């Protein structure tokens, strides 16, 4: 099978039961996405598939054939950080860093969803005005846990990236 990861085709031979997370980490050696809970509860494994955020531990790699997969390693352009990555650095939105790749990928996907008018528990369907408020950022990012409690800085980073092209 061929997975398109970070803009490059990767031809792999995988068992049908191999998760996308295991293919990324164990076969392709892209270790940014973390195996936190392996149950889709923590968000540490969040990657983007066709611009939408998913938990890589909950999907089989074979289900993603033909789709564009973006990991934390694929967000930067050479030595230039993606605006969301830069916002996380600027706002010191990490402590131990374990959840950071998933938080950043989720934030990029979340902003794209918001721009597309996807509803949240805070806002109904329809156009979304950016930047998002703190309550809406917290709600939309609620699937990503931080064991260190860096949430105030994560929210600040996402808020600042709203106006700088932080989405896909």
TrEMBL record:
In terms of Pfam families, this protein maps to:
Fer2, Fer2_2
What EC number(s) does the entry state? 1.17.1.4, 1.2.3.1
List keywords of the entry alphabetically. Answer: 2Fe-2S, Iron, Iron-sulfur, Metal-binding, Oxidoreductase
- Supply the InterPro entries for this chain: 2Fe-2S-bd (IPR002888), 2Fe-2S-bd_dom_sf (IPR036884), 2Fe-2S_ferredoxin-like_sf (IPR036010), 2Fe-2S_ferredoxin-type (IPR001041), 2Fe2S_fd_BS (IPR006058), Aldehyde_Oxdr_Iron-Sulfur (IPR052914), Beta-grasp_dom_sf (IPR012675)
Entry keyword annotation includes Iron-sulfur: yes
Q: Can you give the residue ranges of the 2Fe-2S ferredoxin-type domain? A: 1-75
| Record GO terms (molecular function) | 2 iron, 2 sulfur cluster binding; aldehyde oxidase activity; metal ion binding; xanthine dehydrogenase activity
Which superkingdom? Bacteria
**EC class of this enzyme?**
oxidoreductase
Signal peptide span per the entry? none
Q: Does the keyword Hydrolase apply?
A: no
Q: Which PANTHER family match?
A: OXIDOREDUCTASE WITH IRON-SULFUR SUBUNIT, OXIDOREDUCTASE, IRON-SULPHUR BINDING SUBUNIT-RELATED-RELATED
What name is this protein filed under? Xanthine dehydrogenase, iron-sulfur binding subunit putative oxidoreductase, 2Fe-2S subunit
- What are the top taxonomic ranks of the organism? Bacteria, Pseudomonadati, Pseudomonadota, Betaproteobacteria, Burkholderiales
